[in-house]
Write a structure and sequence with these properties.
Blueprint: E1 9-15, H1 18-40, E2 43-47, H2 51-60, E3 70-74, E4 76-78, H3 88-95, H4 116-130, E5 135-139, E6 162-165, E7 175-178, H5 180-185, E8 188-193, H6 199-206, E9 219-224
Parallel strand pairs: 1-9, 2-3, 2-5, 5-8, 8-9
Antiparallel strand pairs: 4-7, 6-7
Helix pairs in contact: 1-2
The protein binds 6-phosphogluconic acid.
6-phosphogluconic acid binds next to helix 2 and strand 4.
Length: 233
């Protein structure tokens, strides 16, 4: 199968290692930030959770970015108490946000401690004021989920910008996610996908399976060799 023909992909890049993948995407984020700030004065970015994005954030914190003009959102959040070490915002703070000169008022955490429904409603109201995002960074799970949009979950067809998620197969079961509508509206979408565990989902997407990640249109896909050991052509 030819990974370059990944449905809906704007571009596919296979990096040797997760480390290079992280560095390359960090560079892309810094470029997109500088272009958005030059064009519109602000860069609105949604961060992803997961180990692959974390590597990217650890690189990004060393790059020159005008953080005072960056507004940070989250693609999804686990319904856990504020400050819980398992929350995606906790990871992002440790790897990036706590290490750079970004005003705390520019960081828009999902208030998932309120419960999925209340938090999603509040976050949707916030997103209505900023949409579209300039960039959505996205991971992909082994089952093809992205953000907290899992295969077969009713949240996939919820049209609100931020949606409550129940019965997620990956704990915790209760989450909040940006919807397909909000993610697809972003000016740029970038997937970071590393590790052999992702091969099966990539193959399914190539075969045309409508997994959640496949429903993000015109994304840039950054993979590592472990995720896609085949050739690009
Ligand atoms: C979560 C994570 C999760 C993650 C993917 C990919 O809230 O459970 O954010 O959705 O993004 O599972 O993660 P890796 O990059 O670690 O494979």
């Amino acid at each position: 199968m030819n990974i370059a023909s990944l449905p809906n992909a704007q571009a596919v890049v296979v990096h040797d290692e997760m480390e290079q993948l992280g560095a390359a995407v960090a560079q892309r984020v810094a470029e997109l930030a500088s272009q958005a700030i030059a064009a519109r004065g602000t860069f609105h970015v949604a961060l992803a959770g997961g180990e692959t994005p974390r590597r990217c954030y650890e690189k990004l914190r060393h790059l020159p970015v005008d953080w005072a003009h960056v507004q940070v959102y989250f693609g999804d959040e686990r319904c856990l108490p504020a400050g819980d070490a398992q929350r995606n915002d906790h990871m992002a703070y440790g790897a990036l946000l706590g290490q750079v000169a970004i005003p705390s008022t520019n960081i828009h955490a999902i208030p998932s401690e309120l419960g999925a429904s209340a938090a999603a409603a509040r976050y949707a109201t916030l997103l209505q004021q900023v949409a579209p995002l300039d960039l959505a960074l996205l991971g992909m799970g082994e089952d093809g989920h992205t953000a907290s949009l899992f295969p077969g979950n009713p949240a996939l067809s919820d049209q609100a910008l931020a949606v409550p998620v129940f019965n997620a197969p990956k704990p915790p079961a209760e989450r909040v996610s940006l919807s397909l509508t909000a993610l697809n509206a972003a000016r740029q979408k970038i997937f970071l996908v590393a590790g052999a565990g992702k091969r099966d989902a990539l193959e399914q997407i190539l075969r045309g399976e409508p997994l959640p990640a496949a429903r993000i249109a015109s994304a840039e896909w950054h993979l590592d060799r472990a995720a896609w050991p085949g050739s690009l052509r």
